[in-house]
Amino acid sequence: MFRKHWMRRWGLTATCLFAFASQAADAPVAVVNGVSIAARLMDRNVQANVAQGQKDTPELRAALKQELVARELMVQEAQKRGLDKLPTTQDALLAMRQNLLIELVLNDEFTKNPISEAELKTEYERQVKALKAAGDLQQFQISTIVLATEADARSVMTAMRSGQAFDDLAKSRSMDPSKDKGGDLGWFLPDQIAPAISNVVVNLAPGAVSAAPIQVGPYWHVVKLAGKRPYQVPGFDESKNLLQSAVVQNRRTALLKKLTDAAVVK
Prior knowledge:
alpha+beta; Chitinase A, domain 3; four-stranded antiparallel β-sheet; 9 helices; 58% helix
């Protein structure tokens, strides 16, 4: 009798404890003007910071809570001003939502069907076969000086004609990160670079500079052909990163085709 009474009391106490624990886990980090900030948002931010080498400390959590509250206040202010209702805002939010969902579906696809070594080797063999079918290929080592305007580019070319070195001008005038290496971009096959540049480069002798500035998008390039060599197909192991990207793109294309074939588009 006593045992049953004790068990009933323990059961009631345990139920209360479990309920309390559940409520604690679901308790918001903060409530800002009546809007709750979910605890999972704090947990996610803590995990992200820990993954970057920080320690999970009360100080870190306090700073993250402050940031979450600040973000919620700014969101509320934007809503108060009606900025969330603007067509441009709605379009931007739609694009962000689409991009996120696309990324999630692709991640799900590759989580359920990871890329295998055999798949990478198949893609490698396909690319090697295509390269061999293209005949003798040449690789070009390209250096460039990137300028904002055609006038700036022509000014650089005038400076070269007066005896200033390409490398020095690249370091002092170029807008491209390659300026730290004197404009050197590395080795490329013709189809790996912008057509406007490749069409010029393939006709240059090693060491020669383009006769005129070349426009690519909004910028102007002064291009130098630093070297030329027969293309050597890289080995499988050193190609893995590029092969991974190619397989991802192939899988994405195949998934999109499957969805398109099954869709009703009017």
